[in-house]
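Table S2 (continued). Query chain:
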Amino acid sequence: MKGFGWIKKWRVWVGVVSVLVLMSLCAWIGYSSAQTEVDGVKKSYDEILSSLEGKSGELERVEGELSTQTDELERVMSSLSEKKEEAAEAASMIDEANKKAGEIDSLKKEAQALDDQIKEKKTKIAGLDKDIKSKKGEIKKLDAAPVTLPSGTFIVGKDVKALRYSASAAGQSGNFVVYSSFGDLKVNQILGSDYGVSEHIFFADEGDIIESTMPTILTPVE
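Corresponding output:
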């Protein structure tokens, strides 16, 4: 039985070695799996970092574009605000121009109304002038005999009666002047020439002074 002891020892050693080999194999397998898992995780981590760096660059680019667009938007808003102010100013100027145009139209209407009134007055004046001329032609002479005065100065009430007269030159022309009793000038005419009149109608009141540089005919009229 002693001869077989080494066999038992050998079997023990073989078992121990087998166990060690098996343990080493398991450890190696576990290490390989762990290494593979770690490498996979590392690889994923590197990929994530690379992706993050790319996204970070993309984010910076987007932020730059956003900043540029924001600046452009602010510029457009500022320009729009200026345009609104210009539009408001233009609208105010248009309103003022419309107001002035309304005032001008009103003034034109007033001027037209005044012009119409002036035309109406002129028509009335023309009619009055026509009536006056007609009345002058219709002046009736009184039954009293005309008075012939030589050139000189005469007093109404003493030399001639206080009446209404038509004065005319008796031949040559000259100046015919009448003053009131207070010295006020009542008549100043040239009678009997191309520069004067053929006759002049006037009222001779008591105390009036008649001055004539030529013989004058005073014909009483109504």
